[in-house]
């Protein structure tokens, strides 16, 4: 477990106390840590946290223009659908099931690039992928980068405070990090470049991808609906980018045991299946913790899984070459057992 324990940059307040209990820093300490991590002037190794801050700053003018110049109920509906369904579903497909868990494979890199850029780009892949592997290894334990038991703000600021890779990985451990990332298509730094930037991706690559993605979607939305639609949907991307950080707080019962009998079958952690994230983005989170490598997480009849529909459609079209689907195993192990108990 040494690699998983050390792969993320430990916050100044640490993961756990001397007796092994979770450190729960107050809001002042959390904000101080975040500001230190964003400070590009103190160290260029802070560039990836600084870029997330700049992402928010660059999206704010769109939000202002949407609210005060282009607002309409029609555009508000487009805002909500894009933020909650398009951005959410894409996050599950790309960051969660493909980049982190390799639950399916593309038949050609072109389909990977198209899937990566299906929506307005916000989050850098390495911020999500590496820390999410740690999350699954240490769910709801000290070291879980977004441990809901430490509170709402602990999760909201996790991208800055807990999800960056360590700045002093050995060459061997950096190769292990690259193993998490190689299939994503992200152009990776050499070990010497990593020592300079403390990241898998270089600033130039990251900014270039964002610029090209934003340019395409700005032009596409402008041609479809003018500046009003541009401002509404770029605002929606901001809405998702900020509030997705709250998901692991609510998705893990706000740090409390809130499992529902017949709904949440994995009791090894605090994850729960929620209707809104499940129906809108395929995030049936307890199911996912039960079968993290599955391309489908909607196992019960009412559990709509939009990401799975996308993946399976691409499979039928030949764009996805293979996938893993754990639904039948779930039904055999859990639902059949439940039916036997009722009888």
From TrEMBL:
Give the primary localization class: membrane
Superkingdom of the organism of origin: Bacteria
Q: Any transmembrane segments, and where? A: 47-67, 73-95, 197-216, 222-244
Tell me the compartments it is located in: Membrane
Q: Which GO terms describe its molecular function?
A: oxidoreductase activity, acting on paired donors, with oxidation of a pair of donors resulting in the reduction of molecular oxygen to two molecules of water
Q: Name one GO biological process term.
A: fatty acid biosynthetic process
What membrane topology is given? Multi-pass membrane protein
> Which keywords belong to this entry?
Fatty acid biosynthesis, Fatty acid metabolism, Iron, Lipid biosynthesis, Lipid metabolism, Membrane, Oxidoreductase, Transmembrane, Transmembrane helix
Q: Cellular component GO terms, alphabetically? A: membrane
Boundaries of every Fatty acid desaturase domain copy? 73-293
Family as reported in the entry's similarity comment: Belongs to the fatty acid desaturase type 2 family.
The protein in question is named: Acyl-CoA desaturase
Q: Which organism encodes this protein?
A: Flavisolibacter ginsenosidimutans
């Amino acid at each position: 477990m040494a690699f998983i324990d050390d792969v993320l940059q430990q916050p100044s307040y640490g993961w756990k106390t001397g007796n092994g209990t979770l450190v729960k820093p107050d809001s002042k300490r959390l904000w101080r840590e975040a500001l230190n991590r964003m400070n590009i002037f103190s160290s260029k190794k802070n560039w990836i946290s600084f870029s997330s801050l700049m992402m928010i700053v660059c999206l704010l003018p769109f939000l202002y223009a949407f609210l005060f110049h282009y607002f309409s109920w029609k555009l508000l509906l487009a805002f909500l659908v894009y933020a909650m369904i398009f951005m959410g579903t894409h996050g599950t497909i790309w960051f969660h099931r493909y980049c982190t868990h390799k639950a399916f494979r593309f038949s050609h890199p072109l389909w990977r690039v198209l899937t990566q850029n299906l929506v307005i780009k916000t989050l850098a892949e390495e911020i999500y992928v590496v820390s999410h592997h740690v999350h699954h290894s240490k769910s709801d334990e000290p070291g879980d980068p977004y441990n809901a038991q430490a509170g709402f703000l602990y999760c909201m600021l996790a991208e800055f405070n807990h999800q960056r890779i360590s700045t002093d990985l050995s060459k061997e451990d950096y190769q292990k990090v690259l193993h998490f990332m190689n299939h994503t298509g992200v152009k990776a730094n050499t070990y010497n470049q990593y020592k300079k930037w403390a990241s898998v991706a270089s600033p130039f690559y990251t900014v270039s991808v964002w610029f090209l993605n934003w340019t395409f979607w700005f032009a596409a939305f402008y041609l479809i609906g003018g500046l009003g639609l541009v401002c509404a949907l770029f605002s929606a991307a901001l809405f998702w980018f900020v509030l997705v950080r709250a998901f692991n707080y609510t998705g893990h019962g706000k740090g409390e045991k809130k499992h529902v009998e017949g709904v949440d079958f994995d009791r090894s952690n605090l994850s729960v299946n929620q209707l809104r994230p499940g129906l809108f983005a395929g995030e049936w989170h307890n199911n996912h913790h039960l079968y993290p490598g599955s391309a489908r997480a909607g196992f019960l009849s009412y559990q709509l899984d939009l990401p799975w529909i996308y993946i399976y459609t691409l499979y039928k079209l030949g764009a996805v070459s293979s996938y893993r689907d754990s639904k039948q195993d779930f039904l055999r192990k859990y639902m059949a057992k439940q039916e036997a108990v009722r009888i």
